[in-house]
């Protein structure tokens, strides 16, 4: 690459880092790329670091030494996320979202990549420090959330199928009871879809009693995999006893009455302390 | 926001533009944001524009006048995309990908957000000039491609379900014959999931005869929607007669022999002219 002026180099390095989250980039990569001295690169990184922090984009970690370099860790401050979630809660509380069977219509929200990216960034912030190999979800609605999260964590995604029509060679199937309708259902995952002993983050769009997530946790055992975290976009707060104890939720559906057409949605447990501070 | 130095402003504007593709941003937005003169902002944009073009990230369109501003159009040059696709073709041609029933195992590739983002950028480049309201796909494997594409085009995604268990109020179901196994199958879409008369881009991961895509096209009629384009990641070149005529493919499976364990995958029709130029 031809030698760039500092101004152009800053633009170039910014996009380079933004598209490579959780990836260690040796300073020599930049120095070679721009035919610049490492000292200039370090000065550039200091400027970028300041803006990323100011903007709530994330941290720029610099590691010294032979194996050193710089790593961009996307991390949105909770206070910024909370503002975003509060607006989403208002949208989710629209009466016309009430569906038969106490379901809530969210496809319009889940269908917006810009919202999914924000939500993915929140999960990536929440789970940034954990040692994770793969993000898992079950088809269909959790998929965009899992990809957005995985994208910011620089991890692959594994999608569990809701049937056993898997056409990908040998597969592991388990039965689970969905909390929503108490029916026994099947979920399955191809053997080759996930390495044994993987460290897994489970992400899903909605959790009522947690039967579906419990199902995925049972599936993990078949792969001798370890659960590293559970993130749900919206949880139903009407359930007294959850099958899953340790999870992060971004929003909580606290009331839904089909007769009076009343829904109430509040920020989830991820913001518990933040809420207290704000009020 | 406090007044930033030019260097910091460049970093800030770069990330701002990258996260808002296909969105018109008035110059006053930047001028107000950084308490800077419009002339300085214009100079910054010229620097960013040059780097974006040099890097093959896309175009920065500046529109003059009262309704003017700047718009980032992600667009990867075909020559860069072709290099990426050629490497993917090599990966796809690994003999262990052959599955019973002449399926090809792609879940590991579809499971990598970074690859999906690249592929999404290619579709966004290919369809950038078309007037599209929504990106449509059918569950399950096309979903990450649809989101990646829609993210770069700043559009919402609509996911067609492969059953009629839609729990989202009234839905339209159609029957279609999947080219893969000649069985009659059902796909459905909730009425509220897509506005009537929408302009639609269809995206899917794999196309054999095109029965599934034809099914989505039939579904469009029920919504009085218009097809604006079809993008498939991998097409099977072994099929003589496609049900779908006008589509863009990024890769083409030309041979698959389960006995000899031979697969051949070449770049798709998107690169047809590019290929000729290169060879």
From TrEMBL, chains A, B:
Q: Where is each Phosphoribosyltransferase domain found? A: 108-250
Q: Assembly state and interactors?
A: Homodimer.
Q: Name one GO biological process term.
A: negative regulation of DNA-templated transcription
Question: What keywords were assigned to this record?
Answer: DNA-binding, Transcription, Transcription regulation
Quote the NCBIfam families the UniProt record gives.
purR_Bsub
In its UniProt entry, what is this protein called?
Answer: Pur operon repressor
Organism of this sequence: Paenibacillus psychroresistens
| Ranges where the Bacterial purine repressor N-terminal domain occurs | 5-74
Entry keyword Nucleotide-binding: no
Pfam families hit by this protein? Pribosyltran, PuR_N
Q: Which family does it belong to?
A: Belongs to the purine/pyrimidine phosphoribosyltransferase family. PurR subfamily.
Gene for this chain: purR
Q: Which GO terms describe its molecular function?
A: DNA binding
Q: Which InterPro entries match?
A: PRTase-like, PRTase_dom, Pur/Pyrimidine_PRTase, PuR_N, PurR_Bsub, WH-like_DNA-bd_sf, WH_DNA-bd_sf
């Amino acid at each position: 690459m031809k030698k760039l002026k500092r101004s152009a180099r800053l633009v170039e390095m910014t996009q380079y880092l933004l598209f490579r989250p959780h990836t260690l980039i040796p300073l020599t990569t930049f120095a070679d790329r721009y035919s610049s001295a490492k000292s200039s690169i370090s000065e550039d990184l200091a400027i970028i670091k300041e803006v990323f922090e100011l903007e709530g984009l994330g941290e720029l970690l610099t590691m010294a030494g032979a194996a050193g370099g710089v790593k961009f860790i996307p991390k949105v401050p909770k206070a910024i996320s909370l503002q975003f979630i509060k607006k989403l809660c208002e949208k989710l509380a629209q009466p016309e979202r009430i569906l038969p069977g106490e379901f809530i219509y969210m496809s319009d929200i889940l269908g917006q990549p810009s919202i999914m990216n924000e939500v993915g960034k929140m999960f990536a912030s929440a789970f940034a420090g954990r040692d994770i190999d793969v993000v898992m979800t079950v088809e269909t609605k959790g998929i965009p959330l899992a990809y957005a999260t995985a994208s910011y964590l620089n991890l692959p995604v594994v999608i569990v199928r809701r049937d056993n029509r898997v056409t990908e060679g040998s597969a592991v199937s388990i039965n689970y009871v969905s909390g929503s309708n108490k029916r026994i259902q099947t979920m399955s995952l191809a053997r080759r879809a996930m390495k044994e002993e993987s460290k897994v983050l489970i992400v899903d769009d909605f959790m009522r009693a947690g039967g579906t997530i419990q199902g995925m946790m049972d599936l993990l055992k078949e792969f001798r995999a370890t659960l590293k975290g559970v993130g749900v976009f919206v949880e139903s707060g009407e359930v007294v006893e959850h099958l899953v104890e340790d999870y992060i939720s971004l929003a909580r559906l606290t009331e839904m009455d089909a007769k009076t057409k009343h829904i109430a949605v509040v920020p989830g447990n991820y913001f518990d302390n933040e809420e207290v501070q704000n009020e």
